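User: Show me a protein chain along with its predicted structure.
Assistant: Here is one chain, sequence first, then structure tokens.
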Amino acid sequence: MATEETINSEEQVLQEKEVQVDEAQETSQEQTETAEETENKETVEVDPLEAAQAEIAELKKQLLYKIAEFDNFRKRVIKEKADLILNGGEKVIASILPVMDDMERALEQMHKADDVQAVVEGVTLIQKKFMGILEKQGVKAIETKDADFDVEVHEAIAQFPAPSEEMKNKVMDCTLKGYKLNEKVIRHAQVVVSI
């Protein structure tokens, strides 16, 4: 019996040794494969200089595309700006044309009219219509009646002594109306100022 147990234990030891040998062979084979893969990778890897040159070439190509794209954009903007400058007043002119028609009709009626008051009323209506169109475009008259003199919006063309202390530096009279376009002065009001 002792011999059978000894044989069994020897067989077990032999089997364990075979398993250890098999594992050692597998580990050795994995290490060999890993080493071969590393060698293959090293041979596949590109020279860093060549990689950098390829990247530079790609970036140059992208840069040329961007330059061309920007140049096209710049040309398009210049063309649009030129069109805007050339035809920008089209909307304003189209809105003023009815006023021109009214003026022509008023001139025709002035030659035939006996009633001066009717002509005055007609011209007043045309002036109001014209001012309404200008206001829609952002044009506003600069107020001068009882206003303090302001160099930002007024241009003094004459000065007179103030009749009283509270009238000093006030607008006495307006000789030419001033206008603003969207809060920017496009023509200063010409005024007489008290000093």
